[in-house]
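Re: beginner question about structure tokens

> Can someone show what the tokenized structure looks like for a real chain? I only ever see the sequence side.

Sure, here's an example I had lying around. Input first:
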Amino acid sequence: MTADDVRGAARALAEHALELPELARGRTVAAYVSVGSEPGTLALLDALRARGVRVLLPALLPDNDLDWGEYTGPDSLARVEHHGKMALFEPSGARLGPEAVTGADVVLLPGLAVDARGMRLGRGGGSYDRVLARLERAGALPRLVVLLYDTEVVARVPAEAHDRPVHAVVTPSGVRRFPSA
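And the corresponding structure tokens:
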């Protein structure tokens, strides 16, 4: 994809995501800052903040778990190099602890693919598997939404017993919901 294609896809993804009733009602959204070839999320993060939504972003811990901090705009991000892993943009302010995600109304998840069942394929580090398990243990029921390119919605991905389906996928061309989630 060209740089213009990537920017256009990020705008379209944000527009479709902002039409979700879950995001319209949500007071707190746990999200992430896209990196590498992931669909861009900054336009969506800024639009959520403009609506008065509290946006939580992850900070990777040494054991691959996630801590959380608040996104207050682009100046609240720091580029953090993780040894042996990619550099991530993380919140530069106070850490709220791994349990902070349990207060989110919606959790926006990264992924490599999602299938027709709503099963998400992650990068294999287990960070979001831990988040989903933490939500389940806390009895938290946020809406789970994965952000992907259209070509990353596939027929089937491998799934294990601990995997949980997402409620919806947002792509630059629209939203697809999964009733089994």
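Each token stands for a local structural state, so reading them left to right follows the chain. The radius of gyration is 15 Å.
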